[in-house]
Amino acid sequence: MSFASPLVLVALVALPLLIVAYAGQQRSRKAAAAAFASAPLQASVAPVRPGFRRHLPMFVFLLAIAALILAAAKPQRTVAVPVERASIMLANDVSGSMTATDVKPSRLAAAKRASKTFAANVPKRVNVGLLAFNDSARVLQSPTTDRGALNAAIDSMTVSGGTATGNAIATSTSILSKAPGENKKPPPAAIVLLSDGSSTRGQDPVAAAQAARKAHIPVYTVVLGTNEGTITVKKRDGTTSTERVPPDPQSLAQIARASGGATFTAATTADLKQVYEKLGSQLGHKKQKRQVTTAVAGGGLALLLAGAAMSLAWFGRLI
Question: Does the pTM exceed 0.85?
Answer without folding.
Answer: no
